[in-house]
Amino acid sequence: MSVLLADIDTGATAWVLISTALVAFMTPGLAFFYGGMVRSKNMLGMLMQNFFAMGLISVIWAAVGFSLAFGGSGQYIGNLDFIFMKDLAKIAELPGYTGDFGLVIPILAFFAYQMMFAVITPALITGATADRMKFSAYAVLIGVWSILVYPIIAHWVFSPNGWLFKRGALDFAGGAVVHINAGAAALAVVLVLGKRRGWPRDAMPPHNLPFTLLGTGILWFGWFGFNAGSALGANGLAAQALVNTHLAAASAMLVWLVVEKLRAGHATSLGAATGAVAGLVAITPCAGFVGGASPIIIGAVAGAVCYLCLSLKTKFGFDDSLDVIAVHLVGGIIGAMLLGVFADTAVNSLGADGLFLGGGASLLVEQLIAVVATLVFSFVVTGIAAIAIDRTIGLRVSTEDELIGLDQSQHAETAYQS
What we know:
Number of helices: 16
Largest sheet: none
CATH superfamily: Ammonium transporter AmtB like domains
Order of helices and strands: HHHHHHHHHHHHHHHH
CATH topology: Ammonium transporter fold
Radius of gyration: 20 Å
Shape: globular
Strand content: under 5%
């Protein structure tokens, strides 16, 4: 059966298509955000890893990823009904997307929008593994991960048929599916990969902070599509999500800088960039479920707590090069749990009321279950994949290649001519 033109909301479709482009732009933004933070000899290596994800993951999504995430009626994994995009242009609705959850946009628009989420999520891992991972190993890892991890968790949380969705866990735009998922995976990989040569003894400062700030600006801009686009309509909910997104980022940046100034003596541009991203991460699961001053509070908590968690890697001895775990894993957990506190059905009737809005602790419990399930599954499966790759083709570059830098050793190129 074909989708009737009368069933399609053209305004909603236009907004989702624009949001798809905004989210697609986030991956190059992430490349520059991370690229400015690495040493100059690894700049192209970082850019290449992120751009490569746009190619590989898009093809995997079309081949099997979307079908595993949104096909079938199973609670734990989709099926292969939509393998290689079979019938996507013909079907009237996706499994589970009926009634209040019915789509008013073409299935292909939803497919494209979700594809951009699938692309950027494994790209987030590159910040933790920076400066020392083989490009070939990275390619295999994210390819496997985009089949065995991402679509399964997306099915659990995003699909109305998923077991966490059915239990009542809320995740508006990917706090668990994107950020906790990628953060847990990053932790697993760096534990297998090991530390950079000389870390933490040698200073490894960012080589180009203007690039990092440029990347932050692109991410902030694209995040409006990431969060407000998840309303899947040009409506009041999208407007609320957009306002929430901006206020959380602004609040987190300000609080991060205050805490940084008090603890380290300076408010830095790197702190401003990282603080804003921490706020964007934390508001992601909440964006379409909270209102009022809640996003400012959520951003403030994320700015303070994520900054304080930067020291965890030194304390526990794992080398998370660009603080993916402190920002994305911790920030995602903060957002998911505070959603259980601040969720308001006056903002979104398809959600639930949180602890502070008279809903009791039930949503908070469901959010905790979703956080733990996502973290454990992603960490375990990613860790097994990383160990398997390390024992076959090897996960990290040789000492010589690491000293030369990834630009030359992996790509025979250089970002800067001397």
